[in-house]
Amino acid sequence: MDGSNPLGEFLRARRETTSPAEAGIVSSGRRRTPGLRREEVAQLSGVSADYYARLEQGREQHPSEQMLNALARTLGLDAEEAAHLHLLARSGRKPARRGTRETVRPSLLRLMDGWLHTPALIVDRRMDVLAANRLGRALFAKLFEADEPNLVRFVFLDSAARSFYPHWDRVAQSSLGALRAAAADMLDDARLTELVGELSLKSPEFRRLWARHDVRGKTHEAKLFHHHDVGELTLTYDSLTVAGATGQQLVVYQAEPGSRSAQALALALLGTVAADLPAPGRRTRAAS
């Protein structure tokens, strides 16, 4: 996805977005490069400048846990970013494998279908949407116009996403960060590589944000939607790991009790839209 040196690329990206002030360095005069210099990261991390340069260049690929922890402190990484750094250091480059879409357990599909006022999706680590209940398909109707819906592709390449997400910039950063978080242990996944390549080629915004190496898993967040039939909806999603299904997440959307959004869902306004849709297809592809 990013060449043959993901660890070095992550370190360089985070170094360039870490200001000297954040690292406790008093800057005097104009600096020619953004962020920290390699020598400054090395000094603050207690390692030689030559060793750190080899890390960024991919000539040293086996840093110790202590070294990684020191780099995480120097670069001000949060817990999720630090875990991503450790994962990159452990993930060796392997021959590409052709992953396919995963299957979703029938019992989970039945559970989701029973939620009449709660939109729900199942996504994998590539942000492919594997399944949805009727209300989920109604909420994301524009997304499901694609043969193989993918949340990140929808955000960056579908013009409908700009109106569907009034806070598009925030959603773009969030979805890309979730994809980046999943990518560290999928460096050999050909389908993910193709997705990143497609988005990088077709979307300058994706290309710019992807180069930052921001990491952010999908967990919990409030989002504003503008649905083409029922108008604005403010929903909070919770992303729950599906036990026994590697990488699958159950994403459940709920409205604040008593809100206009809750009334819209409770009165089945979206459900009325969903009634006009065909029953959601159950793609049963082999697990990757």
Write the layout of secondary structure elements.
Elements: H1 6-16, H2 38-45, H3 49-57, H4 65-74, H5 79-90, H6 106-113, E1 120-123, E2 129-132, H7 134-139, H8 151-157, H9 160-164, H10 168-183, H11 190-202, H12 204-210, E3 220-227, E4 231-241, E5 249-255, H13 260-266, H14 269-275
Antiparallel strand pairs: 1-2, 1-5, 3-4, 4-5
Helix pairs in contact: 2-3, 2-4, 4-5, 8-10, 11-12
Key traits:
288 residues; alpha+beta; five-stranded antiparallel beta sheet; 5 strands; 44% helix; elongated; disordered C terminus
Descriptive account of the structure:
There is one protein chain. By secondary structure, the protein is of the alpha+beta class. It contains 14 helices and five strands. 34% of the residues are buried.
